[in-house]
What does this fold into?
Amino acid sequence: MKNQGKTRRHFLKTASLAAAATMVSAQKTKSKNLPATPQDKTARLHLDPEPKFPLSPYLYMQFMEPLGVTDGSVAAAWNFKNDHWHPDVIKATQELAPTLIRWGGLFASYYRWKEAVGPRDQRKTMLNLVWGGVETNQVGTHEFVDFCRQVGADPLLCVNFESDGKKHLTQSPKDGIRSAGPQEAAEWVDYCNNPSNTLRLSHGVKEPYNLKLWQIGNETSYGRHDWSCETAAKKTISFARAMRKADPNIELIGWGDSGWARKMAEIAGEHLQYLAFHHMFNPDRGKKDSPLRGIEYRKDPDRTWESLMRAPEVHDQKIRRVREQLDGTGMPLAMTECHFALPGGRNRCEVLSTWAAGVANARLLNVNERHGDVLKIATLADFCGTRWQVNAIMIHVPAGRAFMMPVAMVMSLYRKHTGQQAVNVTTTPDGLDVTASRTENRLFLHVVNTNRTRPIAAKLTVDGMNIQSGRVFTLATDPEYEVIGHCPDILSPKEQDLPDDRSWTFPAASVSAVELDVI
It folds into this structure.
């Protein structure tokens, strides 16, 4: 079996490189003005360049959470011998280029921030009540902010919201009380943002961190909890007032999932800038014969592709349900956690290592853009770790190079080629999923070929404008290819110039970013 696996990987790698070479050759041939196919003549990809609404840069966020024995995540990214972040994780994250990174998750419900600041030999360890194991707290506020600064991301902190009303998380058998109220949250804001905070200064940190984004409550309405929406909203107001007393200029995110959005906005909306919701989902909705279960995806590539291509519809429905509750309120949304949640005995969701999943994730990013008038913060992954395939970055332990998963590859591509204002795509060839944006006289297209085996040709046109020049950045390989390590020769964006006739053939199962300079 080991030799068979090795042979399969070698075949897929060879096939992927051959496919990429064929794609380049085909584009070069096309640029020589050879006769076009009938589809080339009729298929148009047409844009209306009039700006519709601003696109937030925070549609490309990540979140960092110590996941204990469940996944190495933070502990694997940190060099405990030398007290710094592993350089390979920093490098991979710089390539991913997230605009925002959140510290929190379920962990926030029993996190006491003061245990993780100051001299390392004085930091207090804690039981990780949800994820198992013991956290050393060698990574805390200072280290998290330092990581964000190194990779060019803004930090977002999620405060302990009285354990989100979950009694089983309010006390640890070894660490005492784990719930924290408004005062502790306000003290954290002051520690981070007050230039004269004595505790931070005593820790040798002279300059304030000036953190502007804070989240109150994480999955407060999920699982076992004792609060109604009304109770959570009133407590949100108490937290907001205390935190703003420490710094009036911070922006706050409240919790609004499980049908809470409307009431939370009505009661606490004047104290909040965003309402958060999460989306962990299976596009097959629990079907027993789903190819997304365990390693079933390897048996039938066609069915696997079809299942993954259903994901955008499920994702769109979730966002619509939340935004419809807020209709007329003007309250923006923050999807601070989101990923595929696929079943499997090994709990690894290994299909997410395939390029087919990368294509599906690109379509989810397109859904986010279409809701960009309301959706202002969003993610599609769990950022980093050693086990779960839902992570954007995988870390080889105990030694090895961190690498981006398919979801990270498409996020990085989109992040680096996107505009400030959404624009309309008015005509699209069948099989292409396209969104577009604009910054001044440059248009950006995010193009997903949803056909697993067939390339799709299109002629690019812009209403009332001429395309002076264009560039296409393409990710494409065999949909079955599985990313199990650093693979720059197989899944790195291939940059090519758009031909003079402004036509392009998008390879099968590809994700492309197109830049057009227009006049």
Summary: The chain has 13 helices and 26 strands.
